[in-house]
Specification:
Elements: E1 9-10, E2 24-27, E3 30-33, H1 35-52, E4 67-69, E5 80-81, H2 82-87, E6 98-100, H3 109-130, E7 135-138, E8 142-146, H4 150-170, E9 184-189, H5 192-202, E10 213-216, E11 223-227, H6 233-251, H7 260-273, H8 279-293, H9 313-329, H10 331-342, H11 347-355, H12 363-372
Parallel strand pairs: 1-3, 8-9, 9-11
Antiparallel strand pairs: 2-3, 4-6, 5-7, 7-8, 10-11
Helix pairs in contact: 4-6, 6-7, 7-9, 8-9, 9-10, 10-11
């Protein structure tokens, strides 16, 4: 349409109120109204943004996991607990804590479901073999099988996750990192008798029945086994932390030989970090100081020759005191030392490379450190 006043031709828009310098294009004698072009363009852009994430998955309903959480079985702290599932009589998910995605049919989750149901059968067989009923609590990194009080069991499951991140922080790994595949299975029995039966009958290790607990640090699925009978809650938690430290140290960085005294020293240092004011640390320090005063404490470079036994507390106390000294003096050098030994270096040569000193030369500083501890 010819405009009599301006002599310009206007392409009609959606209303004069929308025409301004932003929505019109001046082409000399022509003025192009951009509103009819601009609005559809915006719709296309925003639609692509809204649905971009959804387009990343074949099944947006489950993000290609093949499963959805079963709300009825969600337990405290986001952990899944077999007792919580059984308590609400959840037949929707068979007590697994999740169901197959109704949109895609579950895909690979079907195999996982079958595996977990078979695993439940194995748990029931173990319960029969040791004479106690086990429940299962699953966390991101652990499966805790236990017959201990339900609420305490959840606390122990929390401790496992908390101290896994403490180990990660110490050795420079990111929070949430797993140094093993899948989950670590932890069996915590109330009666010692069940622990003994599990070690002998299920795990085929009758020789460890006299211990307070043991661990098998396999990269494909480590195992920790212990009992609570006659132990306080704090003592039980310290034992959990101790055995978990063995698993982390063995699987951290790569598989490799670490001297027994270093293993025990690291495990006890973390163990004593839980409520350090309690008697366990004080007793070990008292024992080490007494040995030092009596000339019975081995120097650092001879600790690898110590013999460990369940009824010989001094080697454990000396190992803790040595590792505590080294990690307090230079934690970065200690971590480097661990890595070098795991890569095949002899402990003495690795120590010199990490600390720029020999084990024997560090002995005087160690004894001074011991005397200064309270």
């Amino acid at each position: 349409m010819q405009n009599a006043q301006t002599g310009c031709c206007s392409v009609a828009g959606v209303g004069a109120g929308f025409r301004n310098s932003f929505l019109t294009l001046d082409l000399g004698p022509w003025t192009l109204d951009l509103v009819p072009c601009f609005i559809p363009g915006l719709i296309i852009v925003f639609s692509s943004l809204l649905f971009a994430e959804e387009a990343e998955y074949d099944c947006p309903h489950c993000a290609d996991t093949g499963k959805q959480a079963c709300a009825a079985c969600k337990a405290e702290n986001g952990f899944w607990c077999s007792e919580c599932a059984e308590r609400v009589n959840c037949d929707k998910c068979s007590g697994l804590g999740w169901v197959l995605c109704p949109k895609c049919g579950g895909k690979d989750a079907k195999a996982e479901r079958d595996f977990l149901l078979e695993q439940r059968k194995q748990r029931q067989k173990i319960s029969q073999a040791v004479g106690t009923r086990l429940r299962c609590i699953e966390t991101p990194r652990f499966r805790l099988f236990t017959d201990i009080d339900h609420r305490k069991s959840h606390r122990y499951a929390q401790i496992l996750e908390i101290y896994s991140d403490k180990y990660n922080a110490t050795f420079g790994s990111d929070p949430g990192t797993k140094v093993w595949e899948g989950r670590c299975d932890v069996y915590l029995f109330q009666p010692r008798e069940a622990f003994v039966k599990f070690a002998a009958i299920v795990d085929g290790k009758p020789e460890v029945a006299a211990s307070g607990g043991y661990s098998c640090p396999s990269p494909a699925g480590p195992l920790i086994v212990l009992f609570k009978e006659s132990r306080t809650d704090d003592d039980t938690i310290r034992t959990i932390i101790h055995e978990l430290a063995h698993v982390h140290l063995d699987l951290y960085h790569r598989r490799g030989q670490i001297p027994v005294w270093v293993h025990e020293g690291v495990a006890q240092r973390f163990e004593f970090s839980y409520k350090p004011e309690t008697s366990w640390r004080k007793e070990s320090l008292k024992r080490v100081k007494k040995a030092l005063d009596e000339g019975a404490l081995m120097p650092l470079d001879e600790l690898c020759e110590m013999k460990f036994g369940h009824d010989e507390p001094l080697p454990y106390a000396a190992s803790w005191a040595a590792v505590d000294f080294l990690m307090t003096t230079d934690k970065a050098a200690f971590v480097k030392w661990i890595k070098l030994m795991k890569e095949g270096e002899d402990q003495r040569a690795a120590f010199e490379a990490a600390f720029a000193a020999s084990l024997s030369s560090a002995n005087r500083a160690w004894t001074g450190f011991i005397r200064g501890q309270r």
